[in-house]
Design brief:
The complex is a heterodimer of chains A (274) and B (267). Chain A is mainly alpha-helical and 274 residues long. Helices cover 77% and strands 1% of the residues of chain A. Chain B is built from ten helices and ten strands. The chains are: A mainly alpha (274), B alpha/beta (267).
């Protein structure tokens, strides 16, 4: 009898915890949705902000966010994959490799505002690039690098050893085993890691606020400044300029990130199926 | 004994010759003083209880053991008279001449076509020649009829037995002289086992086959020669107890331990 009561209490607590988790997520999404959906028109997405109250649309901020995200992804992907291949396949496993891994994990947990400050000091000022897409993308890439590198390393390690044996057994060199068997076999998980890191970059505020500037520009070259969606949202809300537009921006941002996450899941599932 | 094909003549050449081989995993002495001659264009079976080092021995032939840190072989193994552990022998080249089939069918997660074309592509075979090689290899592995219309499908979509024949086709595509098979039938269904055994009888007209099996009936069915390995005491290296024509091993073994094993008294 006593056991049953304990069981019932435990089960109830677990249920409550689960419901709270889902409820928090649901409330946030619902709140932003209800407040933002009215704003979400083609005009809002595809036109420029106008006047002191930022009426109109947010098109330049969407372009800025996409621009810097894609650029950061292009910078990060080759470096992260090469580093992961080295760590997983070539480096002699030992203290050095463990130190590198620990460094990557630590890098991933550096507060993003610190990374933003660093980007400001290094790229914007010391390197003289100024507030620009390039500065912001480089700073963002510091944030994405450890995520992509570690997921890639895990993906490479997860490739079954008999896949490697099969490849060696056919007379493949080490590099052929890595490039033709191991990387293709781990590609779905690597791509998933890249997509997730990219989703993180889309939502990043602290890093870009220091490195991209705030000017409402439609960026063309790498050295143009701009205002990403997150910063636009911050300014609209904090300074009470245009709250409905802030919610509209927030909703669009959430939709973008959700798309990235669902895309990653879809990609992983499709490639698991054979 | 191998009733499916012509018997191997007594004067058949030795494809692989092993003299006084000792093998170590770090401090562990796994095999000692193995001397054996593998006949050309014949099927040789390695039998013995689990853990007797027969798979380890097999992996010495294509230097697959090189991939294991701390593993080392002492003694001499020659392929066509050439020392395969000599300085200057590239294991990569060796493995093109000596193909290997594993216990777990291991097709790559790519199309059937790409699986078979994998080895030739490593060697830079021209694209125009690949179609022919893929077809011939699948035909030789008795898999062409089942796969000719689905060459673009992922190799992992095949059944376990088909996957193993795909792996055989993949090895055949690089035209090896020797095929090592490490318990190739232990992870697949009985119908597929029969197909693979039939296949071995066909293939040995052209290549030398060495098979590790824990199934004595299989050794008796498919092989011309049988080697019996045994580790008599835990922690001691395994030895080659007896090596002879399969018919002799199973009907009139010379060593008492062989007789005990094949009559099922241990192992």
């Amino acid at each position: 009898m006593k056991k049953n009561i304990a069981n019932a209490i435990a089960l109830t607590l677990l249920w409550i915890a689960a419901i709270v988790t889902v409820a928090v997520l649901g409330t946030v999404i619902l709140y932003v949705f209800v407040n933002g959906i009215g704003e979400l028109t083609p005009k809002f997405i595809f036109t420029w902000p106008e006047g002191v109250a930022a009426e109109g649309g947010i098109w330049p901020t969407i372009v800025s966010t996409m621009y810097v995200t894609v650029l950061a992804m292009v910078i990060v992907t080759p470096i992260a994959i090469l580093a992961a291949v080295y760590l997983a396949e070539y480096a002699v496993q030992g203290r050095l490799v463990n130190t590198i891994r620990f460094a990557a994990d630590s890098l991933a947990s550096v507060p993003s505002i610190v990374m933003g400050l660093f980007g400001l000091a290094l790229f914007v000022e010391a390197a003289g690039i100024g507030f620009s897409m390039l500065s912001a993308a480089l700073a963002l890439s510091f944030l994405m690098l450890p995520i992509v590198m570690r997921t890639t390393e895990e993906a490479i390690r997860a490739v079954p050893k008999y896949i490697r044996w099969g490849s060696y057994g056919l007379g493949a060199t080490k590099w052929q085993v890595v490039s033709r068997s191991v990387l293709p076999a781990s590609m779905p998980r690597i791509v998933t890691g890249i997509i997730l890191a990219t989703g993180r970059a889309v939502g990043e505020t602290a890093v870009v606020i220091y490195t991209m500037g705030q000017a409402i520009n439609l960026p063309i070259t790498l050295f143009d400044s701009g205002r990403p969606m997150t910063v636009h949202l911050y300014l609209l809300a904090m300074e009470g300029i245009n709250l409905p537009a802030a919610y509209g921006t927030a909703l669009l941002l959430m939709i973008l990130i959700l798309t990235f996450n669902l895309g990653a899941r879809y990609f992983l599932r499709r490639n698991r199926k054979v | 004994m191998s009733y499916r094909s012509t018997p191997v003549p007594d004067d058949a050449l030795e494809k692989i010759t092993v003299k006084g081989l000792d093998f170590f995993y770090g401090d562990f002495h796994a095999l000692t003083d193995i001397t054996v001659g593998i006949k050309e264009k014949a099927v040789t079976a390695f039998i013995g209880p689990s853990g007797c080092g027969k798979s380890t021995f097999l992996r010495c032939f294509n230097r697959m053991n090189d991939l294991i840190p701390g593993a080392r072989a002492e003694g001499r193994i020659t392929l066509d008279g050439q020392d395969i552990y000599a300085a200057g022998v590239d294991p990569v080249d060796l493995r093109r001449r000596i193909g290997m089939i594993f216990q777990q069918p291991n097709p790559f997660p790519m199309s059937i076509y790409d699986n078979v074309a994998f080895g030739p592509r490593l060697q830079g075979v021209k694209k125009a020649d690949l179609d022919k090689i893929v077809q011939t290899s699948l035909e030789r592995a008795n898999l062409w009829k089942e796969t000719k219309d689905i060459l673009g499908r992922n190799g992992l979509a095949l059944s376990g037995g088909q996957q193993q024949r795909l792996c055989i086709a993949r090895v055949l595509a690089v035209e090896p002289e020797v095929m090592l098979m490490d318990e190739p039938c232990s992870a697949i269904d009985p119908t597929s086992v029969q197909k693979i055994e039939d296949l071995m009888a066909e293939l040995k007209d052209r290549i030398t086959i060495v098979i590790v099996t824990h199934n004595m009936q299989q050794a008796a069915r498919v092989s011309d020669f049988t080697a019996f390995f045994l580790q008599e005491m835990a922690g001691e290296p395994a030895v080659l107890v007896e090596y002879d024509r399969t018919a002799n091993i199973f009907t009139s073994p010379k060593d008492r331990r062989t007789e005990d094993y094949i009559t099922g008294r241990f192992g």
